[in-house]
Structures are given as C-alpha cells and as structure tokens.
Design a protein that fits this description.
DUF983; membrane; mainly alpha; 4 helices; 61% helix
C-alpha cells in the first residue's frame, strides 16, 4: 500500500505553478518556453525544456471559460455604466461591444494556456 502511495506522489505535478505558467502563455513544465506559436496554436514541444505539448486537447474549454468570464465582467460593467452615467443606448452598445471584443480577444489565449497547463499537471490526454 505504501508503494502505491509513493508512486502517486512521485507522479504528481505541481498544479499552481503550471497554471500560472499557462496563464502567462509559458510552458507548464519549465515556465521559460513559449506555449503558443500563433494566436491559439500550441507548440508541439517546448523550445526550452523539450516537453512534448502536442498531446493537448483543449477543444471548446477555453472558449467556454472566456465567454463565462467576459459575460460576468460585461454584466457588472453594463450595470455600473448605465446606473452611473445613463449614456445614450447607441453609445452604451458601442462601448460594451468594444469591451466585449477586447476582453474576449485578450482572454482566449490565456484560457487556452490554462487548460493546457491543467491537462499537463493532471497528466491528461497523454501528457
């Protein structure tokens, strides 16, 4: 029984540093190499530590997390702006559209990094 317990602790990867590295768009293993080589394309391997990253299967997870976060931020922002300044409807729609698009484009790669780092830390999908 102690052998299996020792085996699971040896195989555990640190979750918090991996996720922080993923949010910074760095390799979840070393924190040095780039995770993405374009907007959302994950590198096959880390350029710094040669960690294979081609196993990742993020699918729709990053998009879902991005919509969830941007939607909550937008809801609070919409309420605050409307109750504080009462702008014209067209002005409010244009401002909130800009906030939504900017927020989604900024968060989407970071959410992809978070999902890939989580998969790496939990050894999912072949990591």
């Amino acid at each position: 029984m102690t052998d299996s317990l020792a085996q699971t602790t040896e195989e555990d990867r640190p979750m918090k540093p991996a996720i922080l590295n993923g949010l910074r768009l760095k390799c979840p293993n070393c924190g040095q190499g780039k995770l993405l080589h374009s907007y959302l394309k994950v590198n096959d391997t880390c350029s710094h530590c040669a960690q294979p990253l081609h196993h990742q299967r993020a699918d729709d997870g990053p998009a879902y997390l991005t919509i969830l976060l941007v939607g909550h931020i937008l809801g609070f922002a919409l309420h605050f702006v409307y109750t504080t300044w009462r702008p014209e409807p067209l002005t409010l729609a244009l401002i909130m559209t800009a906030v939504t698009v900017t927020g989604a484009l900024a968060l989407l790669p970071r959410m992809k990094g978070l999902v890939v780092a989580y998969q790496w830390a939990k050894r999912l999908h072949g990591f």
